[in-house]
Amino acid sequence: MSSSQDAGPARGALAAVALVAALIGTALVALGPDHRASSDATVEAAAASPTTSTTAPGADAAVALPSTSRPTPTTRAPASTQAPAGAPTKAPAGEPTATTVDPGTLPQTDERPSATGAQFDAGVRALWQAIVTDDPAPALPFFFPQSAYVQVKAINDPVGDYRSRLIADYEQDIHTLHAQLGADSSRAQLTGLSVPGDQAVWVQPGAEYNKGSYWRVYGSRLHYTVDGQDRSFPVTSLISWRGQWYVVHLGEIR
């Protein structure tokens, strides 16, 4: 075989190697710089050993290209929806809230009332405010509760009697006492309400149209001063509910 004939297969092998190198270079451009360094060594090795190819002369070279698939990005867990520690929380919808219980809806007790304590003092101040301002509204909580009156009285219409007689008289008595203060209302100072507790009696069912019982006391007085002089108004009758005094007749009983 002549030397020109021997050069043909060699040129074919070199061409195959060049083709492989070109294809690898194209793939590396697509993949970016991270894969070039490792693949350049493969190209250099193939170029340095052209006679080691096992591909038959004239046959198409089967080129295995590096994978072009990219790493799958890591999926981040969703941000927590839990409130941070110490954050205020809301009560679930429909959860009951605390309310003030009407004492008149509770059963009576035989506890003897005292003319002391936060509730009693607040009631006296409210009554005084009502008289000074000629507004009965502040003094209504110091009046015997309607719900308790319904429990106590054995009459046909305790609610009607309570509203049309007792409350109406109470409001009228407040207006009357305000008129008695006259021009002194701006200078009058509350001293307190004196209650002759040793004269209180336990009223039994059957007396005074009652089906229930309560403590009752007559002869209390609302004390105040005007320019240092002591004065007072009568408070005709107090009765009790569950150990607390309430006004039931401020002026005369009618």
Descriptive tags:
254 residues, alpha+beta, 17% strand
Outline of this structure?
This protein is 35% helix and 17% strand. The protein has 254 residues and is α+β, with helices and mostly antiparallel strands. A hairpin with a 2-residue loop joins strand 3 and strand 4.
Secondary-structure blueprint:
Elements: H1 3-31, H2 36-48, H3 118-133, H4 146-152, H5 158-181, E1 188-194, E2 201-203, E3 214-226, E4 229-241, E5 244-249
Antiparallel strand pairs: 1-3, 2-3, 3-4, 4-5
Helix pairs in contact: 1-2, 3-5, 4-5
Can you describe this structure?
The protein is α+β, with helices and mostly antiparallel strands. It has two domains: 8-68, no CATH class; 104-249, no CATH class. The chain has five helices and five strands; from the N terminus they run H-H-H-H-H-E-E-E-E-E. It has helices at 3-31, 36-48, 118-133, 146-152, 158-181, and strands at residues 188-194, 201-203, 214-226, 229-241, 244-249. Strands 1, 2, 3, 4 and 5 form a five-stranded antiparallel β-sheet that branches. Helix 1 (3-31) packs antiparallel against helix 2. The N and C termini lie far apart (150 Å). Residues 1-5 and 26-98 have low confidence and may be disordered.
User: Which percent band covers the strand fraction?
Assistant: 15-25%
Please give the share of residues in helix.
Answer: 25-40%
Mean of residue pLDDT values:
77
What is the number of beta strands? 5
Annotation field: number of helices: 5
Distance between the first and last residues' Cα: 150 Å
Radius of gyration (CA) equals 52 Å
Structural class: alpha+beta
Question: Stretches where pLDDT falls below 50 for ≥5 residues?
Answer: 1-5, 26-98
